[in-house]
């Protein structure tokens, strides 16, 4: 199920390889997610390391799940790992709202869902990444094909939201996050969140 996107494709097609985090900035920065670079290379990025006190294995019968929403700016800069700061559920404590990263505590099949809402008049592009591998692209404006006609001046390339739902095979220690590659996310300080990221362990690997 894991796949890597080929290098060298047009940035409008959002092609990346080994997309696992925010790209390294052109100058030294104390924030590993801060960047102004529009292109991302697998050789330039890595998932944040797991905190030393985070669990690495699950106890027998432990429930593993998390769900988090976005109420604050997701990072500094234009692109980077989205830090869903408002934690709704974090059974097992394997999601870190400070980094936006979920670390798999055990081998298994995980149901992953996400919904990203763009600011009004904007669009969002993002990638679901698992341990330096691009799993799925998200684009609220949709994806063009060779047969598609170019957009006219009257047509808007933006849209309200984009979402995903899929089962991902993960191994113990794999790190997963959503990386915003273009556009602007809507921010809500109300009790109702507009962008969210969730995962739950369905069962161990067969």
Automatic annotation (TrEMBL):
<dbReference type="Pfam" id="PF00386">
    <property type="entry name" value="C1q"/>
</dbReference>
<keyword id="KW-0964">Secreted</keyword>
<feature type="domain" description="C1q">
    <location>
        <begin position="59"/>
        <end position="206"/>
    </location>
</feature>
<dbReference type="InterPro" id="IPR008983">
    <property type="entry name" value="Tumour_necrosis_fac-like_dom"/>
</dbReference>
<protein>
    <recommendedName>
        <fullName>C1q domain-containing protein</fullName>
    </recommendedName>
</protein>
<dbReference type="InterPro" id="IPR001073">
    <property type="entry name" value="C1q_dom"/>
</dbReference>
<dbReference type="InterPro" id="IPR050392">
    <property type="entry name" value="Collagen/C1q_domain"/>
</dbReference>
<keyword id="KW-0272">Extracellular matrix</keyword>
């Amino acid at each position: 199920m894991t796949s890597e996107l080929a290098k060298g494709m047009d940035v409008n097609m959002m092609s990346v390889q080994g997309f696992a985090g925010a790209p390294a900035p052109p100058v030294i920065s104390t924030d590993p997610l801060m960047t102004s670079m529009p292109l991302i290379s697998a050789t330039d990025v890595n998932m944040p390391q797991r905190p030393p006190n985070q669990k690495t294995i699950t106890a027998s019968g432990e429930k593993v799940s998390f769900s988090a929403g976005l109420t604050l700016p997701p990072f500094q800069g234009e692109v980077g790992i989205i830090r869903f700061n408002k934690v709704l559920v974090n059974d097992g404590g394997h999601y870190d709202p400070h980094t936006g990263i979920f670390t798999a505590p055990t081998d298994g099949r995980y149901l992953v869902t996400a919904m990203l809402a763009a600011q009004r008049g904007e669009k969002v592009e993002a990638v679901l990444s698992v341990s330096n591998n691009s799993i799925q692209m998200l684009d609220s404006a949709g994806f063009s094909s060779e047969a598609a006609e170019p957009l006219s001046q009257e047509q808007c390339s933006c849209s309200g939201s984009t979402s995903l739902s899929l089962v991902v095979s993960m191994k113990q220690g794999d790190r997963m996050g959503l990386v915003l590659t273009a556009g602007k996310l809507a921010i809500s300080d109300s009790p109702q969140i507009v962008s969210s990221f969730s995962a739950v362990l369905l069962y161990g690997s067969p």
